[in-house]
Amino acid sequence: MVSGPIIGGPFTLISKEKQTVTERNFLGNWVLLYFGYTSSPDIGPEQVQLMARAIDILESKQNLKVLPVFVTIDPQRDTPSQLRAYLEGLTGPVAAIRQMAQEYRVYFKKVEEDGGDYLVDSSHNMYLLNPNMEDVRCFGVEYNAEQLSEAIWKELNKKPS
Question: Is 160 helix (H, G, I), strand (E, B) or coil?
Fold first, then answer.
């Protein structure tokens, strides 16, 4: 059996409650992981809303529990208090964010703008992690909430081979 590249790995970040969080905090849960930033003018906040809607659909229609986790790729601006509105929001030192992004094959780059402001250019993938914190599926921006919830439902209901 040929498998793809290993995606994911250990991490140590900080929750919006300013607590240290590692991958071990999520063991035993299905997790939908998204890397973004709160000051994103477009796709980031939309993806977080999409994630929340898909999880609501799973809970209300299928009675399935999936934990949404948002990891900032802009820790300079996304402090724990800034992340309060964002699901289970995680931040941390730039080096820790960069390491986790590399483990999940997430591309991001700071793009300077006039006046000292900046944007963060990034890939906008979501990762479905099983209760062992193993990546089982990656979702791009082409999904709406219903399609995303359906795809997640199928993954959670696959029979072990």
Answer: coil
